[in-house]
Design goal:
This protein is of the alpha/beta class. The chain is 28% helix and 24% strand.
């Protein structure tokens, strides 16, 4: 069924993929971008949107999301997660495989794809698990999962401790031209609740040292050098990791990396008072780490801004800090956090923000979108970069309410999200 044409009028057309930055119109017909730039005429029956004062950009892409279905539909479903993504300006999201059971088979991949299609909000692309059952022992059937639609592989939620298995995974991934995404953590050092440092000592909590991440970062980088496989490092959190990634790129190693909105905006101080909504893995670190991560995004060492959207039930986060689960929701706050802490502070331009939230993640993971080029799929994000708003978790489309940003004032908000030419979200009012 064809959708009604849409004309986006008078917005700032910002597309790093085509080096376009101008005030003009964008016309969508039959799910594709039909024309872009200048003043455009539209066929009869076209829906016209006034985008003056707003940015019209390629749809945002989040390559690191936990949707909890199957197994924990009480926490999040593929439909509610996809709706939350659309409300945050995301047109595509990649679902991690640590569900119950894990996404480690062809049929499990197909399940995620079909549920995402039925939801009809943001596109949902599944990761496949690297190992059977995410047990880190036996390589999963990667070829079958790629054929079914898996776009990358990870055991996220836990690292792959066996270096031989990681090497084999990178070699297989090279065959299929997909990335291996690693949750970098040396588990022998990772048995803690927050960053190891001043705040953990104050609160009497066991800490996780930065070396727990950095040891696995360098291990995986060296294996990527050996195999030529494409390595993607998830949710980087330390200055040392940034330095190692910068070295790897200088060596020509095929490594990309992401950082989450919370790690470029919050420090371990957010945990003070035993705030479980600030508990995550990797943990919030020091101000020096935040500064290094921000610099890494600015100079291109860090390729992608992601969320690691991880909903949990309210009761689970109400446990004692050490027993509460790791993770926060982020799909509906990421754009505002990134604009507030990176763009408004002069660390990143809006152009570079779109590059790292849309163009590069789409390119690295071979996803549709990431461009406003004529003829491309009409996945478009419209956002107001100056909109001031206060985070109200009760208003989230996500089932999750576990955010450390509740009540925070942010700048920048999605106003309209278009997927395949269809408006899937419009900000009320």
């Amino acid at each position: 069924m064809s959708v009604r044409p849409v004309l986006l009028q008078g917005g700032r057309l910002l597309d790093p993929s085509t080096r376009r930055d101008e005030i003009g119109d964008l016309l969508v017909i039959d799910g594709r971008i039909a024309a872009v730039g200048g003043r455009l005429d539209a066929p009869d029956g076209t829906e016209v949107l006034d985008c003056r004062g707003q940015v019209v950009a390629p749809g945002l892409v989040d390559v690191h999301v936990h949707l909890r279905e199957p197994g924990r539909e009480d926490v999040e479903t593929i439909a509610t997660g996809a709706a939350a993504a659309a409300a945050g300006g995301f047109t595509s999201i990649c679902a991690m495989p640590n569900t119950i059971p894990p996404t480690d088979t062809q049929s499990a991949v197909g399940f995620v794809i079909e549920k995402g299609r039925q939801a009809g909000f943001a596109r949902v692309f599944p990761y496949g698990a690297i190992s059977v059952g995410q047990n880190g022992e036996q390589l999963a059937q990667m070829g079958e999962m790629v054929a079914a639609g898996a776009v990358a592989f990870s055991d996220d939620g836990k690292p792959v401790p066996n270096s031989h298995l990681m090497r084999t995974a990178l070699e297989y991934a090279r065959t299929f031209d997909v990335v291996i995404a690693e949750h970098c953590e040396d588990m022998a050092l990772g048995h803690g609740s927050m960053n190891e440092g001043r705040m953990s000592a104050k609160l009497g909590l066991k800490g996780i040292p930065s070396e727990a991440e950095e040891i696995d970062v360098i291990r995986c980088i060296l294996l990527a050098r050996r195999t030529g496989g494409k390595l993607h490092l998830c949710h980087m959190s330390t200055k040392g990791s940034v330095d190692l990634i910068r070295w790897a790129k200088d060596q020509g190693i095929a490594v990309t990396a992401e950082v989450c909105s919370h790690h470029i905006s919050l420090t371990e101080d957010a945990v003070d008072g035993y705030n479980t909504n600030a508990k995550m893995n990797p943990p919030l670190r020091t101000a020096a780490d935040v500064e290094a991560l921000q610099r890494g995004v600015a100079d291109g060492t860090i390729d992608v801004l992601a969320t690691d959207h991880a909903p949990h039930h309210y009761d689970e986060k109400e446990r004692e800090f050490a027993d509460a689960p790791n993770g926060i929701v982020g799909l509906e706050t990421a754009l505002g956090v990134n604009i507030t802490y990176l763009v408004e502070r002069g660390i990143l331009s809006l152009n570079d923000l779109v590059l790292r939230m849309s163009c590069l993640p789409a390119k690295i993971f071979h996803l549709p979108g990431g461009t406003l080029a004529v003829g491309s799929v009409a996945d478009v994000s419209v956002f107001d970069p100056k909109a001031r708003w206060s985070v109200d978790p009760k208003a989230f489309k996500s089932k999750g309410r576990n955010t450390p940003y509740g009540g925070h004032a942010l700048t920048g908000r999605a106003t309209c999200t278009i997927v395949g030419g269809k408006i899937v979200y419009a900000l009320a009012g």
